[in-house]
Here is the input.
Amino acid sequence: MVDFFSWQAILGYVLFIVLILVFTGFDLTDFIGGFLEKTEAEKEIKEIHKAIEDLSKYKEDIFLSGGMLAPAVIVSAKRVVSWGGRNRRDHSWHLIDFEVDVFSEDIPPFRARFRNEIYRPSFVRANNEEMLTEHGRKIWVTYDPKDTSRAYLDHYDDDHESAMKEREVNGRRAAFNKMTEGNEDLKVRGEQAEAVITRVDDLELPYPSKNSRAVHICFEVTPKAGFPFQAEGDVLIGETAIEKYSVGKKVFVRYDLQNPKWAVLDTERNRSIG
Here is the structure.
C-alpha cells in the first residue's frame, strides 16, 4: 500500500509543483525576493510610524512644559529615512535630523539639534544624505525654556500666519487633553447611573482626526439610590452623535463617588441608544 504522507511522497509533490512552475515561466526567485522585500518594507513602515508617534509625544511634552516659540535658521538637514510612495524614488515624506541656530528674544542665540518629519516631493541631496535645499531656510522652533536641548520644528516661516492659528488650536487641544485625561479611568471605575442632559456647550474645539468635537456637558443624574443631583464634565462627542447627546436626551453616565459633580458619558452603555 502506498503511503501518501511519507517523506518521499511529500518530496515528490514538492518537486512536481516546482517543475510545473518552472515550465509555466513562474520566476520563483522573483517571488521569494518580492515577498522578502514586502516584509522588510512593512517592518520599516512600522518603525517609521513608531518614530512619528514618539515624536508627537515629545513635542506635546515640550509644549506643555511651557515651550517657547522662536525663529531659527537651518544649518544642517540630514535625511534619515523616506516613505510615502510606491518605491524609494517616489517617497515624499522624510524624517530629518536638523541642526539649527535659534534666535530667541528671551535668551542668547543657541544651536539646537532635533529630528522631525517634513514633506518634500523634490529636493537636492548630497552623497551624505544632506538635503541642501533646506540649508539657510528660516523656520520657527518650539524649545523648552528649562532645557534648550529639547526643541522641535514648529513650522516654516512661509507658513507662519496659518501656523500661528493652528498653534493656538493645538494649545487648546493640549490643555483639553490634560484636563480630561482622567475620563477614561472614570468610565471604568465610576458609579453607573441614568441621566438627562440639561446643557451642552460647544467649546469650538474640533478634533478632525477623530471626527469629534469638544463639549462641556451638564447632567441631572438619577443614582440607583438617593435623590437626583447635578453633574458636569468635558468630553469628546463624535460629529455624527451631536443629536444623540443634545439637551433633553436620556443617557447613561458614570460619576465619581468622591466628587459626584464630575460625570462622563458611559460610552459602552450608550451604544444601545438610538
Q: What stands out?
A: The longest helix spans residues 28-64. The chain has a mean pLDDT of 86.
